[in-house]
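Notebook, p. 212. Picked up where the previous page left off. The plan for this session was modest: take the two constructs that came back from the sequencing core last week, fold each one, and keep the raw output in the notebook itself so nobody has to go hunting through shared drives later. Recording the first one now, exactly as returned: residue sequence, then the structure token string.
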Amino acid sequence: MNLQWYPGHMTKARRMMQEDLKLIDLVIELLDARAPLSSRNPDIDEMCRQKSRLLLLNKADLADERKNQAWSAFFQEKGFHVAKVDSRSTAQVKFIHNIVREACQEKLERDRKRGIKNRPIRAMAVGIPNVGKSTFINTFAGKACTKTGNRPGVTKGKQWIRLNKSVELLDTPGILWPKFDDPQVGTRLAMIGSVKDEIVNIDELALQLIAYLKAEYPGILQKRYDIEESGEPVQLLEAIARERKCVKKGADLDYGKAAGMILEEFRSGKLGRITLE
């Protein structure tokens, strides 16, 4: 599939983000730990190059822990501050405050030398749609500051939030970039729900996910759906539809329903901890 999704509000959001960067000490970029490279927006990377950077591998609880470790090491070698998080967990998010201070140590030292005391760190939260920014902010702040939703495009405008005495955070809408040079990037983003399902061929997407799981996580489909994993992806989808009784009127198998179920169970972690790259 050659997917592209770049609605007009993303152009406006990108322009707004660029204007606000001059106010910012730290850029907190949330990535989806199941697709850490594909969920990095190259436009954001370019815009924020001169700023202190903290990468949060969000939804790490849904991703393969061995690969979480490998991707953390990869980004740290590139010079980023990195943390693995489940943005719904208050216990996990608390330690982010210390990493924020560590990432802004030079700024805090400059303030101290100038006699500036207690000026809060101003951070900007950025990322692609449905990566969990709003949930992270609400958990970090300990209150509902932003709208959340398990679908792309919930946050439409910017919003300043006082997290505590020492950190102010600018929430921004999730933005993609105009063209995915690698079609597999678009496919992975569709699998994790960062591209609207309405523009995706769900059957084809499920077949690609089945093929990936069969190759990289053998046995996971057999365990979840009690099927044999031999055969082509379309045969496995048929077996899953039959096993889960996904049928239309007239007893024909409902492949669309089975495909949607497989994607939902991947996204929610019911298939297990899976990383797509």
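Okay, moving on. Second construct, recorded in the same format:
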Amino acid sequence: MWSYILKRILLMIPTLLGVLTLTFAVIQFVPGGPVEQAVHDLRRGGEQGGAFGMRTHTGVDAQQVAQLKALYGFDKPPLERYVSMLGKFARFDLGESYFRHQSVWSLIVSKLPVSISIGLWTFFITYLISVPLGIAKAVRNGSKFDVATSLIVLIGFAIPGFVLGVLLLVLFGGGTFWQLFPLRNLTSDNWATLSLGGKIVDYLWHITLPVVASVVGSFAVITMLTKNAFLDEIRKQYVLTARAKGLSERRVLWKHVFRNALLPLIVGFPGAFIGAFFTGSLLIETLFSLDGLGLLSYESVVRRDYPVVLGTLYLFTLIGLATKLISDLCYVWVDPRIQFEQLER
């Protein structure tokens, strides 16, 4: 087991290096970098003063450009900057934002509450509804209930989250019909003065529409996966044997089928749990004016805030690789029939 874990950890290193190297190389050729943006701000500022207190009347001279390059570290050769970046990342020093004047770590931590809120609610609501629904569909396979629920979840899956978000805003966010829910932030301005019960209600009131927009499209995958896993187990020989021995259908379903059918879902928990925080949140956060990790990543790419782009990419890639390793280990821990030698093949 430990040799397998060590091999997987060692394989993470070239993967991380590949992702960072490719991104760093692309950044060197992308127009409109931080120096160009600062020069543009200086030219636009004119006599009123540009970025960093510099003043110019007709343009930006070479000395000012050199100062900007030194400020952002672009006065050094690319290879030297690349090696310096890898050294900092090895110490988990993600650097400092060019434009926000904060460390990348502090920016990520400040945005986490929004992403965690949306991610946790999306994850738990999806599984709490989809797993029981998938079991019910498997037991009633081919019935009117099965057909109707399949149609409903597939319609939800076909509707993009941001389209549903716009619809919810129009209907319940004061767009055209009713203003039942707030449009921005996770809490109200007077949240600190509210009682404990008032804070809980206020938080749930703010998070309702973003969570609904995020969760509806997730039902179909987990529901159909649960249904198909149960159907595969129900048709196996051991189920027929258990029924032939006179066991009740309820006992066969919950004692024998349930444990084996949920293996694919259980081992997928780590990936689904982490993925709920970092995927599909950009449009939802933008629609509902929630300042989370998705919006931070998007704004950093637009503004060419390279320390934030590379720092968040490094962190998310590392989390993704670790989550994949945990998922593979869960296969062995949940099902002892699987050996690490099989995972290595």
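Notes on construct two before I forget. The mean pLDDT is 79.
Flagging for discussion at group meeting.
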